[in-house]
Design goal:
Elements lengths: L3 H11 L3 E5 L3 H14 L3 E5 L1 H7 L1 H15 L3 E8 L2 H10 L3 E4 L6 H18 L4 E6 L8 E2 L12 H11 L3 E4 L7 E2 L8 H11 L3 E3 L7 H9 L2 E6 L1 H17 L6 H24 L2
Parallel strand pairs: 1-2, 1-10, 2-3, 3-4, 4-5, 5-7, 6-8, 9-10
This protein binds zinc ion.
């Protein structure tokens, strides 16, 4: 099996993207891997600090590794949004495939210095681990929002991106390019495709698009054509999971077996996964 870095580079070269899907339980895990298996593509399972605390930091890693070894299916695990060096160290030591240090709420200098500390530590433990960082604030939510959150809107400049990469040595960068975490009711602002393209050419590293739930098909496709090699989806999966669960519970009110009524939640989530993979890989 190729490494995660090779899959990401391959995606970038082909102008497609690897899907990054967040989960917080085993139904979510199965929804993602079954969707990826059906379409025969590599996939990244994302777990934020809160999600991995719920499902188990080391436990979910074991699930992913066991599944990957048994099936040969390229499934990788990323520690999504990690807000401190200590929590980055935890997942590096555990053996995650990649990690994102999110210092976007810190002053830029501090974001740079902690990101560099994370990169240096991670590579000293595991030279193959990928470290991603972010610049520019795109909000912190994975919810349905009434309006664009405060502080969101200023785009990452090309100079900031180049400086950041040179000073930190990250493998991948998530810039603020008009994207927003969470989903804004009534539609989201457009992505700045030109900025994505300028940053991509200037830093020559794979870009990661966060907060892609709610963005238009055209915007996501153009972002991928312009250098985005990983796209994060979370909120749309959460919405689908909950809708599937509510539907199952209402259709079988007397059913008490979780493995029966949770199937509906899992399959609604899997549908979103497959739709997004088709969009990201142009299948
Ligand atoms: Zn994100």
């Amino acid at each position: 099996m190729k490494s995660l870095q090779q899959y990401i580079q391959e995606a970038k070269d082909k102008k497609i993207a690897v899907g990054h899907f967040n989960i917080s339980n085993l139904e979510g895990f199965w929804a993602v891997v079954m969707g990826a298996k059906n379409l025969n593509v590599p996939i990244i399972i994302g777990v934020s600090e809160g999600e991995r605390d719920f499902v188990g930091v080391k436990e979910i890693l074991s699930v992913v590794k066991t599944y990957r070894e048994q099936t040969g299916q390229p499934v990788f695990i990323n520690a999504d949004h990690t807000y401190s060096f200590e929590r980055v160290k935890e997942v590096v030591d555990a053996g995650y495939d990649s990690v994102i240090f999110d210092g976007t709420e810190l002053p830029l200098e501090e974001n740079i210095s902690i990101t560099k500390k994370c990169v240096d530590y991670a590579k000293s433990v595991n030279p193959n681990i990928l470290v991603e960082a972010e610049i520019g604030f795109i909000g912190k939510s994975s919810k349905l929002l009434d309006s664009v959150p405060d502080g969101v809107g200023r785009l990452t400049s090309v100079e900031e991106a180049v400086d950041f990469v040179n000073q930190t040595g990250v493998d991948m960068l998530a810039p603020a390019v008009g994207n927003i975490h969470g989903m804004v009711k009534g539609g989201e602002p457009a992505l700045n495709i030109e900025r994505i393209s300028e940053i991509s050419k200037a830093i020559n590293l794979p870009l990661v698009l966060h907060g892609a739930s709610g963005n238009s098909i055209e915007d996501v496709t153009n972002a991928i054509n312009s250098g985005v090699a990983i796209v994060h989806i979370n909120t749309e999966l959460r919405v689908a999971y909950k809708q599937g669960l509510v539907k199952s519970l209402s259709e079988m009110p007397d059913e008490i077996s979780p493995y029966k009524y949770l199937k509906g939640a899992r399959s609604e989530m899997q549908k979103v996964v497959e739709d997004k993979i088709k969009l990201f890989t142009k299948i």
